């Protein structure tokens, strides 16, 4: 049987090669990831890294779950400024939430995510124009170590606000449901 490849699936390959050089890495919660020199982002399912000490995280982009129409309009408008040159920096943040989170209903999760934690509100206030990509990992064909792979591309001028956003998100009620999180800072080279 020929399976059609999922065009929304991406692999994040940690190892010795790739377009992005690791400049820093830290564990925020739970178990870390083995240190790597570089990360490559490739479409599709890369089964295993070519290096014995490397790793691959996979995730697929998807429809939105929590945004309301007014929030979506604000998010789209924020991305429509003048074109910027390709960003020099990226941050890869894989995240796993706990069973308590996944046991909640959709409306309970939305209440925590936005009404009580202001995830979108804070993101729009502090880092509206950076490139943001959310990949979901729970419904892929094989088990993945994280629930989400988040990927951000930004310029040097965006770093201070982005760091403030990270502090705010990590201090929010939503983050009390995060059981594993690793932050990897990258530079295009
Ligand atoms: C840069 C500004 C940011 C904006 C505007 C933003 C906005 C959003 C929005 C609108 C969603 C909901 C998508 C949906 O409806 O399904 C979302 C989900 C998510 N974001 Fe952010 N975000 C930002 C930064 C961040 C950062 C820095 C992190 C990681 C530290 C992060 C981690 C996540 C995760 C894990 C989800 C999925 C939550 C879930 O489905 O349980 N976001 N973000």
Features:
Alpha-Beta Plaits, eight-stranded antiparallel β-sheet, binds protoporphyrin IX containing FE, 189 residues, 8 strands
Brief digest:
This protein is an alpha+beta fold.
What is the topological layout?
Elements (H helix, E strand, L loop, with lengths): L8 E7 L4 E10 L8 E6 L11 E6 L8 H10 L10 E9 L1 H4 L3 H11 L2 H8 L4 E6 L11 E7 L4 H12 L7 E11 L1
Antiparallel strand pairs: 1-3, 1-4, 2-3, 2-8, 5-7, 5-8, 6-7
Helix pairs in contact: 4-5
This protein binds protoporphyrin IX containing FE.
Protoporphyrin IX containing FE (HEM) binds next to strand 5, helix 4, strand 6, strand 7 and helix 5.
How would you describe the overall organization of this protein?
With 189 residues, the protein is an alpha+beta fold. The chain is globular, with a radius of gyration of 17 Å. Helix 4 (119-126) packs antiparallel against helix 5 (159-170). Strand 2 (20-29) and strand 3 form a beta hairpin. It has one domain (9-188): Alpha-Beta Plaits. Strands 4-1-3-2-8-5-7-6 form an eight-stranded antiparallel beta sheet. It is built from five helices and eight strands, in the order E-E-E-E-H-E-H-H-H-E-E-H-E. Bound molecules: protoporphyrin IX containing FE.
């Amino acid at each position: 049987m020929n399976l059609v490849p999922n065009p929304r699936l991406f692999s994040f390959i940690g190892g010795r090669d790739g377009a992005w050089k690791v400049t820093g890495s830290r564990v925020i919660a739970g178990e870390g990831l083995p240190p790597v020199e570089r990360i490559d982002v490739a479409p599709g399912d890369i089964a295993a890294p070519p290096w014995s000490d490397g790793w691959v995280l996979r995730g697929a982009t998807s429809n939105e779950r929590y945004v309301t129409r007014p929030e979506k309009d604000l998010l789209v408008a924020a991305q429509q400024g003048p074109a910027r040159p390709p960003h020099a920096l990226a941050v890869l943040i894989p995240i796993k939430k706990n069973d308590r989170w996944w046991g909640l209903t959709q409306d309970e999760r939305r209440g925590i995510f936005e009404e009580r934690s202001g995830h979108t509100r804070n993101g729009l206030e502090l880092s509206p124009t950076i490139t943001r990509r959310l990949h979901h990992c729970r419904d892929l064909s094989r088990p993945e170590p994280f629930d989400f792979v988040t990927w951000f591309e930004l310029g040097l001028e965006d770093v201070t606000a982005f760091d403030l956003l990270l502090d705010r998100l990590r201090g929010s009620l939503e983050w009390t449901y995060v059981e594993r999180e690793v932050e990897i800072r990258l530079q295009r080279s």
